[in-house]
Write a structure and sequence with these properties.
With 285 residues, this protein is α/β, with parallel strands linked by helices. It has one domain (23-280): 3-Layer(aba) Sandwich (Rossmann fold). The protein has eleven helices and eight strands. The two termini are 38 Å apart. 40% of the residues are buried.
Length: 285
Amino acid sequence: MDPMRRNVLAGAAATAVAAVPAALAQNGTQIPMGTSFYERGSVRIRYMVAGSGFPLMIIPGGGLNSTMAGLLRGDPFNPIDELNNEFRCVTADLRNANGGQSTGPLEVDRPWDSYTDDHLGLMDHLGIDKFMVMGFCIGGPLVWNLLKRAPDRVVAAVLAQPSGSRPDMRDLFYQTNMQGWVPELLKRRPDISMDTAEKFLTRMYRTNPDFVFTVTRDFVRQCQTPVLILPDDIPPHPYMIAMEAAMLSPNAELSIFPWKLPRDRIPLAVRQIRSFLRAHRPIAA
């Protein structure tokens, strides 16, 4: 083919793909990997969609510096690479994460819910009603909040190395974020004051510093959504809290433990995740 004609056709194809409404791509249509922005008022969220099939939201780890780049680095593994051949994977930078491009106000009275607003708003933007969700690290509390806020939309959930509140380290997340998140945030965002950042973190991590931060044990006992939990055992990801949640949840499954070390165990954990998602994927998908 003539090189000029090939370039013209390639450009036309790319334009056509970009023009396809996201809602039409929910089930079965191949979506090229790429990033876009979703805006709602003063909130602007950078997101990525990859693969085809039933929708799977993936919340990266990294605490309040949770970004897509961190997810794609593959520590402990890259879920996009592993799952996009069967699922339509949706992921995003967390609002105001250092190193990310999602921005918005610090909602000091409702920090956890503000992030969940972003997640549900993104799925609405993409025309997605029901979906599965997988969360790493801070994604654990955020997954529980999604199950609380949208129980009729989330059909199954995976919590990998979920964050939780250790009784002997109640102030861990407040102190860690004051050192590792706030300074860079204030440099980038002169509109945010130290007082606002402190109030935000106080509400998020000090007001109810127990269990998984976002829901109560009674909620977990009554939650009927199938969940798969892959525990970790480091200070931000307490094994005892992950196990307690698994024991309380009536439809919970557990991975092997440890599942990240030695590293040759990771493929086994990934196979279990894939099998769990397949088992709970709606038949119509």
